[in-house]
Specification:
Glutaredoxin; globular; mainly alpha; single chain; 2 domains; four-stranded mixed sheet
C-alpha cells in the first residue's frame, strides 16, 4: 500500500497512525496538494489527500473510506472499531464530531490563506467558527464520559481521530480552539501523542 499526502493534514495523519496501530505495512509519499499538484495528479487525477493506492493498484480517497478498507485488511483481531452495536455507534458519534471540526477548521484556514483579505467574508468565518467550537464542546462532553481509551486498555479509532484533530487545531488555530476551554481534549491528545505510532508520524 502507498499513502499519499502531507502529515500536517489531520486526515492523512489519521490514516497513517491507524495503519501503524493495525499493523498494516505501507509506504508514505509526502506530496503536497499545492506544491506537488502535478506529481499528486499523476497518482490521483482528483488530487485529494489522503490518497491510498492499494496493493492491487486501486486508488482510494477520503480518510474514512480508506480506513474502512484498512479495517477489512486488518481483520477483527486488529480492528480499531468496537464490536458491540452501542459501543460502535458511540465511536462513530465521536469520530463524526472530530471530522466535522476538522472540516470547519480547514474552511477557516483556506479562507484566511487562499482568499485575498479584501474578499474574505467575516459572517461566513463567524458561522464556521461557531460550528467548530460547538463540535469541540460536544467532544469535551464525550471525553468526560471516558475514564481511559475508548477501548479500555486499547487505543481505538475515536482516540486516534480526536487526538490527531486536536493536534491539528493547536498547530493552526490555537487562538480559537484553546486548551483552557477544552482541558479534557488537551489531556487526551497529550496522552496519545507520546505513543510510538503518534511520535513516528508527527509533523
Amino acid at each position: 500500500m502507498r499513502l499519499i499526502g502531507m502529515l500536517d493534514s489531520p486526515y492523512v495523519r489519521r490514516v497513517a497512525i491507524s495503519l501503524k496501530l493495525m499493523g498494516i505495512e505501507f509506504t508514505h509519499a509526502s506530496i503536497s496538494v499545492f506544491r506537488g499538484f502535478d506529481e499528486f495528479r499523476a497518482i490521483n487525477p482528483v488530487v485529494k489527500a489522503p490518497t491510498l493506492v492499494t496493493d492491487d493498484g486501486v486508488v482510494l480517497m477520503d480518510s474514512s473510506l480508506i480506513l474502512d478498507h484498512a479495517e477489512r485488511v486488518a481483520g477483527p483481531t486488529r480492528s480499531l472499531m468496537p464490536i458491540g452495536a452501542r459501543e460502535r455507534v458511540d465511536a462513530l458519534h465521536v469520530i463524526g464530531l472530530q471530522l466535522a471540526a476538522c472540516e470547519k477548521a480547514v474552511q477557516i484556514i483556506y479562507e484566511r490563506n487562499q482568499r485575498p483579505p479584501e474578499k474574505q467574508h467575516q459572517p461566513w468565518l463567524d458561522r464556521v467558527q461557531a460550528q467548530l467550537l460547538a463540535a469541540h464542546g460536544e467532544l469535551e462532553k464525550a471525553m468526560a464520559r471516558q475514564s481511559g481509551w475508548f477501548g479500555g486498555e486499547q487505543v481505538m479509532q475515536p482516540d486516534v481521530t480526536v487526538a490527531v484533530g486536536w493536534r491539528f487545531m493547536q498547530y493552526y488555530l490555537p487562538e480559537i480552539v484553546t486548551a483552557g476551554a477544552f482541558p479534557r481534549l488537551a489531556a487526551h491528545s497529550a496522552r496519545a501523542e507520546i505513543l510510538p505510532a503518534f511520535v513516528e508520524t508527527g509533523f
